[in-house]
Amino acid sequence: MQTDQDAQPAQGDAQKQTEDKTPNESEEMETSTEENKGEKKSDQPPQAKKAKVKTKVLELPIENSPQWQLANDMLNLFVENEGKMIMQDKLEKERNDAKNNVEEYVYDMRDKLHGMLEKFVSESDRDALSLKLEDTENWLYEDGEDQPKQVYIDKLAELKKLGQPIMDRFMEAEERPKAFEELGKQIQQYMKFVEAYKMKDEQYDHLDEADVTKVDKLNNDAMIWMNSTMNQQSKHSLAVDALVKVKDIKAKTKELFSTCNPIVTKPKPKVEVPKEETPAEQNGPVGDQEKTQEPTADKGAAENTGNPTSETTENKPDMDLD
User: Fold this and answer.
1) CA-to-CA distance for 48 and 60, rounded, in angstroms?
2) pLDDT for 259-314, tens place per residue?
């Protein structure tokens, strides 16, 4: 029992010693953290102030002192040579363009002969043109590699002499229906005009009958021509030139329009409305005369109205009071 009691005071002394030590240790920790913070702050460099920039303008003198200069004769010679080189480059470009045009036509026409132009060329003409194209291609990569510009132009003209008629037939077949359609619309328009005139339309009652008859005749002739040419062309082969060209159809449309349109659009004559004559001002009473005439007129009217009433009262029979 004594040992236990001795141990308890020993433990109490130990706790007091630890309590006494902890505040010191905490103070040491706080001082160490503050020192570390100070060290961190001291590690960062202080922010430097922005220095003011001062600008100073100085005028720099310019001196032109060429050390060497060409003579006028030599300078003119160089300019002349430069002009010759520019002209030579231009001629070389034109020569290459002419050569490329021949090559491009060969490749393009070869594809079209077996494509969109197949219906518009006979077999014999297609074979002849195909052989010509092949020969031209071989010539371009052999003797025609470096030829003057005019040689390429002549070679292209030879090819187009065979190929252009085929291309023209294709273009005619593409544009012909549109041209016939425009002519047909024009004919229908003038047919409606003649029919409206015959129905006594007020819009055309000012036109002469002879002019309307002229429009009717020209319109019928154009319709007959269009129907006949369309029928003939439909039976014609596409591999030969067309019977009627697009320019002929457009010329017929223009002729019909220029003759008939002035008659159809003739305006009505303007009717001049007679001007109404303003009556002359009558001299009437002025001022007090109007006032004096008004009551006299009223009196006369009262007298006229009063007479019948008096007559009626006088003509009434006496009533019996009984």
Assistant:
1) 35
2) 999 999 999 888 776 666 555 555 555 555 444 444 444 444 444 444 444 444 44
CA distances 239 to 95, 230, 315, Å, are: 35, 17, 120
In the numeric block, the tokens 């109007």 are attached to 290
Residue type, 185: K
The two structure tokens encoding residue 254 = 């223009």
Nearest Cα to 232, choosing from 176, 174, 308?
A: 176
Encoded tokens for 70: 């060409």
Contact 229, 183 (CB under 8 A): no
- The answer to whether the beta carbons of residues 114 and 144 sit under 8 Å apart is no
Phi, psi of 316 (to 5 degrees): -65, 135
How many residues are listed for the chain in this entry?
322
pLDDT of 23 higher than 50: no
**CA atoms of 189 and 186, how far apart (whole Å):** 5
Comparing 23 with 168, the larger pLDDT belongs to 168
Judged on CB neighbours under 10 Å (0-12, 13-18, 19+), 245 is middle
Q: Model pTM?
A: 0.58
The alpha carbon dihedral of 194, 195, 197, 198 has a sign of: positive
Mean pLDDT of 71-93: 91
What angle, rounded to 10 degrees, do the helices at 246-264 and 209-234 form? 160
C-alpha dihedral sign at 217, 220, 224, 230: positive
Distance CA 39, CA 248 (A): 106
Q: Are 261 and 219 in contact (CB under 8 A)?
A: no
Planar angle of CA 163, 167, 168, nearest 5 degrees: 115
